Fold:
Amino acid sequence: MSRRSGALVPAGWAAYNGLWLALLAGLGGNATVLWLYGGATAIAELFAGAVVISGWRHPLEPRRHLLARHGEASLLGALGVAFAGLGVVFGAWFYPMAAVLLAFAVSLAAMDVRDRHRPPAR
Amino acid sequence: MTDVVGTAGIDPNPVALVDLSIARRGLPSWLTTTDHKRIAILTMASSLVFLLTFGLMALTMRAQLAQPEQHLVSNQAYDELFTLHGSGMIYLVLTPLAIGMGLYLVPLQIGAPMVAAPKACLWSYWTYIFGGLIILLSAASTGGPDAGWYAYTPLSDSQNSPGYGMDLWILGVMLAVGAMMVMSGAVLWTALRMRAPGMSLLRMPVFTWSEVATCLMSVASFPSLLGAMGLLAVGRVDPSLFSHNTWNVAYQFLFWFYGHPVVYVMFFPFVGAVAEVIATFSGRKYFGYTFTVYSLLAFAAGSMAVFGHHMFTTHQSVNDYFSLSSIMLSVPAGVEYFGLIGTLVGGRIRYRTPMLFALAFIPQFLVGGLTGIMVATPVIDNQVHGTYFIVAHFHYTLFAGSVFGAFAGLYFWFPKATGVLLSERLGRINFWLMVIGTNMAFLPMFFSGFEGMPRRVVTYSDASGFGTLNLVSSIGAGILALGVGVFVYNALRSLILARSAGADPWGAGQTLEWTTSSPPPRFNFDGDHPIPPIRSYAPLLELARGPAPRRPGAAEEAAVGATAWPNEP
Amino acid sequence: MPFRSTFSRVFTLEVGIAAAVFVLVLGAVGFAFLRSRLRRRRGEEPSNKSEHTVVESAYVVLLLAVAGFLVWTSLTANAQENSASGRPSVTVRVIGFQWCWRFDYPASHFSVTGTCEGGASGENLPTLVLPTGRSVAIEVTSADVVHEFSVPYLRYRTEAMPDHTNTFRVTLTRTGRWLGRCSEFCGVLHADMDFYVKAVSPADYRRWLESHHQPVLS
Structure:
């Protein structure tokens, strides 16, 4: 029971936010604030939906995460994202570096995904 | 070399937990770790380094303001100082500290061997670090960020704040906030999906619940800041955008839709920490658990509905609604206080360092909370908006409240995370310096603000009469800094002396993290440190009190709980 | 001018409630300390109660009542502050700019400004002259970035935003001169953006108007 109920938390929380949202609409909130608040509520509901779907697909949730081998992927990925951002500020020559870093990071992470369901022999 | 759990012979799961990381020792093993505890320690340690950095900036500002009509720093430098102090403390210190504490403790408290999405958490850590470095870099470049931490348009556009500094600042803020959004998503997912057998939702410790509420807010509200920063970036390409009132107001709404919940992101985990500390050092179960849990969730939801109260004096917000929603937050806050005090009343109190910080949190945050009701009243905000009254109010919530809660948590869990004991004597010196410094620094600001001293002024005239109040504040800030210095000394000294803490240095741990070793093994619990049966939100206390089944069926649950993780039926 | 009286009524009330709550909480914590000491002396175990639903529910109801009362106070006071109606007898336009203020008197076709350099210690601060006893409409806007028109004596302030005008009504009851400030950060000389509000008798006000003959600047 306990793992299924997890989704209730974000779902119920978002629903309670819906009450405040309705009151905001009632007291004269304009379109900007209603979209803003509505959007955030929707994000929380989407999170709840993801938890539900994950529960169907992987009743034994933690097994999916047993092999997180390539931590380097995270470091390179973060550097890649930062470089991409610096590209927006300073111009194009940061982009190829970001692309290389991100490609490298994604392929390392993909190796972990590939190995995820293999027995952890080493 | 490989750590394996589930060796107790009761693990039906064919996949054992194995750490196959490429880098296994030394610095590389830390920098590429996928162990939630190490990522969390990196996050919290980094946030403390940033605390010192941005704290020094605050001291510089207090020196500048100590006397009227002083010019120790230029106007431009002062503007950059408060922009960096505010954005640094919020984006790079308290938010990461709050979520990092959850990253460390949530898996331990719910009996999970790891965090969900460890690589994403590590990515968050590095993205946060790069964001922080870029924010610091922005100050060193031409036209450093000087528009305040909320960077209102059009002041922050490319006409009024030209140069790369502001662009870099936007990038740094987006990276740091985006990173924390991802990390909090992982912590939330862990709490919802990876609880050990027997750990039902309403057996999660109060701290874990406070993290759940926190992460809900950050997942739902942080995207809004990315939107605000995106809008600002577009407006820096085309400054004509912010000659339209619509976009200026839209920016403010987008900003505060993040900007208010983040205040509670920086607060809830530390309330959770205070709750755990008070329960532990009162030697009893936390009182009012169910009410507290629901009030945390209601509080978190309500805090999403109060963003417009920062904009009362724009008269383009919905003042009645936002006054109503803001004042109603006092209801869940009051319920939490009832729990804290109720726990104390029935307890046998031990005054150790974490407890001292937790006890100081109660009246100090209360000052912040009660003045919060005042500023949530438009007719009062019409007098104090944009003044030092606001500065005093949020420093009471964020420093006298949150940071004291954070210090309670840091003193409480430091031995768990490092395996070594902190000095109790230095802890007390730290505590008293911080109490005196905090109240000296921030209490006078209520009075200068009430008299109309605006925020963010580089200086003030002699005739204004703000001189004495500011001098007291500045001296207080110095004492406060001394207190933080004692903490740093205490922590470093303890790591060198390395007095072993043992599994439960306080001798009264109530939640699962205190059963395992200090520091815990790679996967938190193993054959030597199995997860005990979980029959309540204070499983260790039940264990200590002996096996007294409180309800029919408790015996079977205990049997289920006795098996090691993971064995989901 | 309802701002001062409304403010002091609501502020006094909220400070009173806050003080009572603060004392109550300190009292409860102090009581807990004493109980704990007694418990230790008698060798009693701490309580093992985790919930007291009746007390807690009653407490929530009490909190709701107090919060509801505060909300009602806030909303009615807000409505009262914004209740001015009818035609104003004087309309002035306040324009904030980096880094000073300009006050336009549209009906009389002139405007006044000054120099803000040096802030409150400056010699030539802009002064907003208003008559006492008359309902004045003050329209606040900005020529560039967001400023805030704040006069602590009035207990009122409003943001000065570009491309938008905020209007409020005030009736001054006594003559005098009070310092006003910019209260929204607006750039390097934010600290200097001080000004005066000067209330004079209607007769003096008329004389003052007549002494100005400059054409309106924009």
In short: The longest helix of chain A spans residues 31-57. Chain A touches chain B through 66 residues (CB under 8 Å). The mean pLDDT of chain A is 86.
